[in-house]
Write the structure tokens for this entry.
Amino acid sequence: MTPTQIRAAFIADLTAVAPDIDPETLGDNDHLQDDLGLDSMDFLNLVSALHRRFGLPIPEADYARLATPAKAVAYLQEATAA
């Protein structure tokens, strides 16, 4: 998948978990919890959705690598390429 496709998939899963987030105003460096207000359950639901979509194990040690859309795209691109 291309970074653009990964970003679109990430945003689709993010907005499914948190429908109040406007994908049009979402910045690549917006922190999911600090800037966008995701609570810990929303974040875990997002991780679960990403796991289902990409078929990847996402260990808790890697959660910080999903903190912003830019970090998440880089992480998912790396993980799907491996």
